[in-house]
Design a protein that fits this description.
mainly alpha
């Protein structure tokens, strides 16, 4: 908080609510192990890429020579948690489970008496 806002959170004059509000509004660069870009930064980069592509297409439509296709703004690599490995399906137990699987097959007619 001190780096981003100049507020010392150890000062007794600063309330817990103030610390909470400032913590939720920390810029991405000030977060511990945080994001490199915020959502707004991703949207701005996307808008810039689309604008560059539209400019390129417009110049090509009017016959401009020597115009190269624009490259996308490089984005930071997103940190993603590894996906958990899927658990294997449980094998049926007992005759009732086997009968249920057979009844679920196509072209199997179940008659209950």
């Amino acid at each position: 908080m001190l780096c981003a806002y100049g507020v010392d959170v150890l000062d007794p004059a600063v309330s817990l609510r103030r610390v909470w509000v400032l913590g939720n509004r920390l810029p991405p660069w000030a977060r511990a192990g945080g994001e490199e870009w915020s959502g707004e930064m991703h949207l701005l980069a996307l808008i810039a890429d689309h604008l560059a592509n539209l400019t390129y297409i417009t110049l090509q439509a009017y016959g401009a020579k020597g115009v190269t296709k624009p490259k996308a703004i490089p984005r930071p690599k997103e940190h993603r948690e590894p996906e958990p490995t899927p658990t294997p399906p449980q094998q049926p137990r007992g005759w009732a489970a086997v009968a249920g699987q057979i009844a679920a097959m196509d072209n199997v007619r179940v008659i209950r008496q």
